[in-house]
Amino acid sequence: MTRRILARIVALALASLALSPVYAALDIGDPVPKFTATAALGGKTFRYSLADALAKGPVVVYFFPAAGTHDCNIEAHAFAEAMSQFEAAGATVIGVSADDVDTLKDFSVKQCQSKFPVASDQSKTVIQGFDALMQTRPDFANRLSYVIAPNGTVAYYYQNLNPDKHVERMLNAVKALPRVQASK
């Protein structure tokens, strides 16, 4: 087999993998793993609890590969700019990556504009629990966003390395959730 033919076979195999649909292990209706993690908001660290956040309403959990990179900055800015809309819909947002918390402290101020927290998952326990590990680069989270209903189940998810549609899709999904009236 010539090198040229072998190169074409490899290229076709890689192209077919790239075009294959990717499915999250957590499907709509599946319960999500409850987690606590060290997070940063406005440059300060705290202990984030998904269970506590869900007690207040739906939560958008978005995974991103690496703080400070071009596409992750774009996505963080987009979420920050849309936070008033998420809040109006009764939702909160948390970003999760495998970055260390010191990196995320800076990221939370500069890129997230101190409008939502970002959690550090260096052990990748949360990332793996949500099937958000990047298969081609397992040191990183994939760009995968979930809307978690207050009952702790997946209401919607979207996976795409391009950051452009995550905020729009998450916001539409949150707005589509039935609003639960607080009891008086």
Task: Walk me through the structure.
The protein has helices spanning 3-19, 50-54, 70-88, 101-110, 125-129, 166-176, and strands at 36-41, 44-49, 59-63, 92-97, 118-120, 144-148, 154-159. It is α/β, with parallel strands linked by helices and 184 residues long. It has a seven-stranded mixed β-sheet with strand order 2-1-5-4-3-6-7. Helix 3 (70-88) packs parallel to helix 6.
Question: Any chance you could write out the topology, listing elements then pairs?
Answer:
Blueprint: H1 3-19, E1 36-41, E2 44-49, H2 50-54, E3 59-63, H3 70-88, E4 92-97, H4 101-110, E5 118-120, H5 125-129, E6 144-148, E7 154-159, H6 166-176
Parallel strand pairs: 3-4, 4-5
Antiparallel strand pairs: 1-2, 1-5, 3-6, 6-7
List keywords for this structure.
184 residues, alpha/beta, Glutaredoxin, seven-stranded mixed sheet, 6 helices, 7 strands, 36% helix, 20% strand
Helical run tally:
6
Helix content: 25-40%
Oligomer: single chain
- Uncertain spans, ≥5 residues at pLDDT below 50? 5-24
Structural class: alpha/beta
Strand order of the largest sheet: 2-1-5-4-3-6-7
CATH architecture: 3-Layer(aba) Sandwich
The CATH class turns out to be Alpha Beta
Short description:
This protein has 184 residues and is an alpha/beta fold. The protein is 36% helix and 20% strand.
